[in-house]
Amino acid sequence: MNHHFHTDAASAEASEGPEGQERQLLAPTSRSVHGDARHVPLKTGEADMVITSPPYWLKRDYGVEGQIGQEATAEGFVGSLIDCMENWKTFLPKWGSVFVNIGDTYHNGSLANTPGRLEMAATAHGWTVRNRIIWIKDAGMPDPAKDRLKSRHEYIIHFTMQRRDYYYDQFGYAEKYGNGTGPSDVWQIGLKRDTSAHLAPYPVELVDRIITLACPEQVCTCCGKPRRRIVERTGELDESRPQAKRAVELAKLHGLTDAHIAAIQATGISDAGKALRVQTGTGRNSAAVKKLAGEAKQALGGYFREFTFAKRKSNGWTDCGCDGPFRPGIVLDPFMGTGTTLRAAEAAGRGSIGVDLANSSEKTPKRVKSSGGRK
Ligand SMILES: C[S@@+](CC[C@H](N)C(=O)[O-])C[C@H]1O[C@@H](n2cnc3c(N)ncnc32)[C@H](O)[C@@H]1O
Question: Residues enclosing ligand 1, CB less than 6 A?
């Protein structure tokens, strides 16, 4: 077991909870372990989530005893990955996520659909498939086939152990990777070439996107809860859009109040509305909310809906109220390879643990493989 970097805890920053109390934030740590992804030697609380790229079926032979990827059948390959995921389930927190980067394989001329098979098998083992992200690459391995198109995409499958309330920061992601309020499941990220002119393993940006989405910045060392971003709605619209500008003019003209705007947001655009169920944020009962929303609708007509797209703002982080320090979230990569995940985690201020069967990965996580392309 090697420690690649371990910043002195004395350099830890202080973190302020919502009530102004100072709680210490420990520095991130990183280590790599020689081992099998099916038997990761971790205990609960030692890793928060997984970001990994296992070998794809029948692609690159890593030449290590016990390697995954050279199974005789697609079912056998998927079975190996399920054995891994069932092992990770034993130590990840319930709010954790697993992101698996996987590409498909042509076998006997036909796509084997290993990504789809993995999704189905994982679902049968109680996992929830929350996203199948398509990673579009602008380059790839040379492919001589003349009777089909070259494969220029792979998948990143997002698995969770619970259907809701897993840790997720869509707001932070949208701010950083700028897709507006509804970021897309199609990611175009180029493969940067390393110094030896061979294709690099998956790009740091791909890992950083996932870290931003699903690895908490801070986790309580006492109760193990992540701090979650507090996102609040505002009544502010993006007035560069003419419809939004007109909506604001009409609201002013008719003297609509903050309570009207809150009522619009609680009601939503449908007439049935959520106001009957949702009162949060309006401070009023549902009958009053309906009345306000009705007045707003009369004043705004078709521009009513504009206020349902109002900007949101980040307003601090939840605090469990425990006494001890926070630590940065910890990413596990059980198929560490050259250590891209660990480097991305370090750059993002998160902790990391890498596991690989190959001995070369026990070295400092620099790119050590120089032969061949990626899988
Ligand atoms: C596609 S590479 C990972 C690339 C990695 N994302 C990177 O940045 O370099 C897959 C890795 O899985 C490792 N591997 C194969 N079978 C394994 C197993 N059963 N347990 C752990 N590692 C394994 C291989 O040695 C290889 O380094």
Answer: 36-37, 53-55, 62, 64, 66-68, 201-202, 334-335, 337-338, 340, 355-358, 375
Which structure tokens are listed for 200?
């690099």
For the chain, the C-alpha Rg in angstroms (whole number) is 24
Q: To the nearest whole number, what is the mean pLDDT of the chain?
A: 86
> Alpha-carbon distance 183 to 186, whole Å?
9
The total number of residues written for the chain in this structure: 375
pLDDT in tens, 318-353: 999 999 999 999 999 999 999 999 999 999 999 999
Q: What is the pTM of this model?
A: 0.83
DSSP lists the bridge partners of residue 22 as 16
Return the higher-pLDDT residue of 351 and 276.
351
In angstroms, the CA 206 to CA 65 distance is 29
Give the separation between CA 24 and CA 227, rounded to whole angstroms: 13
pLDDT at 284 over 70: no
For residue 25, pLDDT over 50 is answered with yes
CA–centroid distance, 202 to ligand 1, in Å, is 12
* pLDDT given at position 179: 61
User: Rounded CA gap, 198 and 203, in Å?
Assistant: 13
Any idea what DSSP says for residue 38? T
Q: What is the DSSP letter of 152?
A: -
Q: Are 162 and 128 in contact (CB under 8 A)?
A: yes
